[in-house]
Amino acid sequence: MAEAVPSAYGPAEALEQTLGDPLVDSNPLSFRSTVEHDEREERPDLTALDAAGLGRHYVPAALDGALASHEALFWLLRSVGRRDVTAATSHAVSLPAAVLAWHAGTPAQQARVAEILLGGGQLSIAFHEQEHGNDFMATEVAAEPTATGFSLRGEKWVVANARRSALLVVLARTAAEGGARGFSLVLVDKARIDPSGMEFLERFKTLGVRGQDIDGVRFSDLALPPDALLGAPGSGFELSLKCSQVSRTLSLGPLVGALDTALRSSVAFLDARRLYGEPALAIPAVRAAVVDAFLDILLVECATLACTRAIHAAPDRLVTWAPAGKAFVTETAESALHDLSVLLGARFYLRDAWWQGIFQKIVRDAPLTRVSHFGGVVSLAHLGAALPALYERTAAAADAAGASLAPVFDLGRPLDPADGTRLRLVPHGADPLLLALRTAHERLESGALASETEPVILLGIRSEVARLRTESDALRAFLETLRAPHGPGHGRAPEMLTAARRHAALFAGTAALLFWLESRGGLDDFGKAGAWLHLALRRVRQRLQPALEVRPVEEDTSVSARVMDLFHRDRWFSLLAPPLAARGSRR
Amino acid sequence: MTESPVGQVPRSQLEIQTWLIAEIARRRGIAPESVDVNATFATYRLESLEGVNMAGALEDFLGVELEPTLVWDFPTIEKLSRHLSELTTWSP
């Protein structure tokens, strides 16, 4: 198939047409306007997103919304994110609260949340407190039972959008002694409270996403009705952990979108530039850097799509996949931006010298995803806690024990409805993804692959898969060392974060491999050929073990040609490469 | 909690206690003798995510599927082991 556009792209393609080319200054969310809003620390104008009905995609179809596939929602957020991370995160700020409501709300609560979102309103979560970071069990904000419901008291910190949102989901202490069952989620619906019990504190100044409102909130014996409780009493900690698996996956869309613009603006610069008597892109080191940035985008796309499709097809695996995805994507995005900044040279440092200054804005915006909502290090810690048992179980499992992952990785396969009841706090059994890596060499021996794939590429893929498998064996051995009796105590070992980071890289590489194995038939010729996969796996392995190696020039050349082809044809830098709004298109 | 798979032997409260003591000692790098069966898991900083993951490892030891939140509902070695021994000896 020459031009395979995934069906999940449909809503995003319509949004692309609605918003037009972000390089045209007069278009909504143009680079010019978003950078100007950022300079003035003003919220970007989101009316075009509301007019396009983006909020309907946050509400399940059963509640009269348009959310059927989280994959479609990912593409929508990616499309907004390539224009402006601030616009995307300011609009999608409602999602963590919405996910909690869909998961744990009563029909009445869900109807109210849907009413707000479908009416263009927004939601916030208020989890963090100034003194406690991600130590949620130290939460001081308390909801005490009263004769008429609850009384909410205390201060929350860095609440995104608190002033504008119609409703806040607040994590509050409901048992004086605390403990894992000592906290609950309560809904503060501004339409149903006495506003004198709630005040907003100073707006924070931030490194990036300067147009997004981030405030503190103080509750002073705020009276809440009895039906303000979301979920069972004492379930606040459990619900926030489970639902974060979905919401932290969704948080990646804007960042993955921004990487497209970062590479596109760099390529646009290089494409027009001549240095030392030749096009800048003819310089091998420049070409290699462009290729590497594109491979990073393919890897973060594969990791994010795996988590996103797993919301439907493997929700019981998200407990480790979502933190692996979040850690890998946030760290890779920031390192890719650093590498691209080298290509732009002085134009990266000058705030308005190229493409309206969008690149420097992305560099400042990107870390938000790492530090906000179950961010990078929190994800590594969550992952680390689960890894020792996961590797041990996977090692003990028979090869055939892994469930088929085709529903996740066959992009042509329609997704089942999302089932939140299958989210878990602890992974069960072996990890099918690690099992798939262990048995991948058998699939790579198949005759069909051999007849359709250049021998040198297939050999390269096999070799990299074997090396990734060795890495996973080494990781397992290392985790066993940490667990040995009389050791330093593995539960809080600092090495656990390093181990988790390495697992996250293996996760992304294996996801790329499985998309190729399961979806090859639907990919275009470039996707099928597999040079990208060979180089992407090589890049993952080099993250784990940097080595001085000669680059495979032919494959490098084919991938760099692909980058330029996608650039000139206004296609996403993506394995699936669907169309962007055409260059110069006006709304 | 679901039925145990074929071939699983029910564990006594003492066996479960011994396993929990060894596991906490390994996770914290402390001597098993210093682990107090009546102290809360929070004492050993096992009240949150690491606690539920410990329940996951306990699942492997017992060969039965457990609600990982059991460590929250039975927050000491003594309480958890008593509860589990009652459950695992219950078999038709």
As a percent range, the share of helical residues of chain A equals 40-55%
Give me the Rg of chain B, rounded: 12 Å
CATH-defined architecture of chain B: Orthogonal Bundle
> Could you report the average pLDDT of chain B, rounded to the nearest whole number?
84
Radius of gyration of chain A: 24 Å
Word description of this protein:
The complex is a heterodimer of chains A (587) and B (92). By secondary structure, chain A is of the alpha+beta class. Chain A has 23 helices and ten strands. In chain A, helix 6 crosses helix 8 and helix 10 runs antiparallel to helix 11. Chain B has one domain: Non-ribosomal Peptide Synthetase Peptidyl Carrier Protein, Chain A. Helices cover 51% and strands 0% of the residues of chain B. The two termini of chain B are 14 Å apart. Chains A and B meet through helix 8 and helix 15 of A and helix 1, helix 2 and helix 3 of B.
Concise structural overview:
The complex is a heterodimer of chains A (587) and B (92). Chain A is an alpha+beta fold. In chain A, α11 (318-344) packs across α20 (495-519).
Describe how the helices and strands are arranged.
The complex is a heterodimer of chains A (587) and B (92).
Chain A: H1 10-19, H2 31-39, H3 47-51, H4 70-83, H5 85-92, H6 95-104, H7 107-118, E1 123-126, E2 142-146, E3 149-160, E4 167-173, E5 183-189, E6 198-203, E7 214-224, E8 229-230, H8 236-250, H9 252-271, E9 274-275, E10 278-279, H10 284-313, H11 318-344, H12 346-349, H13 358-365, H14 367-371, H15 376-396, H16 406-409, H17 432-444, H18 447-452, H19 455-483, H20 495-519, H21 525-529, H22 531-544, H23 553-568
Parallel strand pairs in A: 1-4
Antiparallel strand pairs in A: 2-3, 3-7, 4-5, 5-8, 6-7, 9-10
Helix pairs in contact in A: 1-4, 4-5, 4-9, 6-8, 8-11, 9-10, 9-11, 10-11, 10-20, 10-22, 10-23, 11-15, 11-20, 15-19, 15-20, 17-19, 17-20, 19-20, 19-22, 20-22
Chain B: H1 13-28, H2 49-62, H3 70-73, H4 77-89
Helix pairs in contact in B: 1-2, 1-4
